[in-house]
């Protein structure tokens, strides 16, 4: 028994001594990954993958607001506003907007167009590669739908009558991990 304790203690001390000398190399940034900030504070990131030309162009707009930013009178706005945005054409004509959303969902990895969480709202588009016209339309749509949204009783009724494509994350809000995260 005592021999086992001594061996465990010696092994532990040996591991601690060798762990102090082991050093990992610093991670080097990927040269294909580019990022920057526009003059208005919008941060952008681009990852080029020329070795995979069939990859789709993924556009994600992350807005740092969610249901935690709502007051009691605003409860539900973080879900309703993106839902209204999805029913509007965002500066495009209706046929262009419909076409954009039809082509903006990857059939191999479908993702909801908008995901709302406690602290973020994420708009997702996955466009076919080599379609610059769609890329311009997508950026124009996102800029107009998030910055120039028209909210009237008619647009609210139209959004409530159309299919709800806004996903809520987490799916189970009673999950313990989320409660822990909210408490900090």
UniProtKB/TrEMBL annotation:
One Pfam match: Peptidase_M16
GO molecular function annotation: metal ion binding
Keyword match Secreted: no
Keywords recorded for this protein, A-Z: Signal
Signal peptide: 1-24
Gene3D superfamilies membership: Metalloenzyme, LuxS/M16 peptidase-like (3.30.830.10)
Limits of the Peptidase M16 N-terminal domain: 46-158
InterPro entries: Metalloenz_LuxS/M16, Pept_M16_N
Protein name: Insulinase family protein
Biological source species: Escherichia coli
